[in-house]
Amino acid sequence: MADMNKLVEELSALTVLEAAELVKMLEEKWGVSAAAAVAVAAAPTSAAAAEPVEEKTEFNVVIKDAGAKKIEVIKVIRQLTNLGLKEAKDVAETAGSKVLEAVTKEVAADAKSKLEAVGASVAVE
């Protein structure tokens, strides 16, 4: 088994970009999503019977246009995600880019309102 203290020290030395890359690599390796973990933690855990028509529980926040205040939009994208500056800039500049994937309705609505407040055009799918 790995020495946990040594592992913590090595992870603490990572830059933000390196940490973001590590997250992506772990998501691919383990077949999970960090955003999905947030959605699972925020999801209600009631044992109610399943409804005949399933309601959509996972949403994607998609940026349609960054608007005039692109720098402010990039800042908000970085706050909402663990992306580095370049990655957040690429998301802001590419129409149709997903800012968040597989999040709850509340998280998606919050992200949409924050992005729209700085002038971005956003859709929740």
The CATH homologous superfamily of the largest domain is termed Ribosomal protein L7/L12, C-terminal domain/Adaptor protein ClpS
**Cross-sheet strand order for the largest sheet:** 2-1-3
Our estimate of the beta-strand percent is: 5-15%
How many helices? 6
Largest sheet, in brief, is: 3 strands, antiparallel
Taking all residues together, what is the mean pLDDT?
78
The SSE order reads: HHHEHHEHE
CATH class of the largest domain: Alpha Beta
CATH architect. name of the largest domain: 2-Layer Sandwich
CATH topology of the largest domain: Ribosomal Protein L30, Chain: A
Helix content: 40-55%
Shape: globular
Overall number of domains = 2
Poorly predicted spans:
none
Q: Total number of β-strand segments?
A: 3
Rg value: 17 Å
Distance between the termini: 43 Å
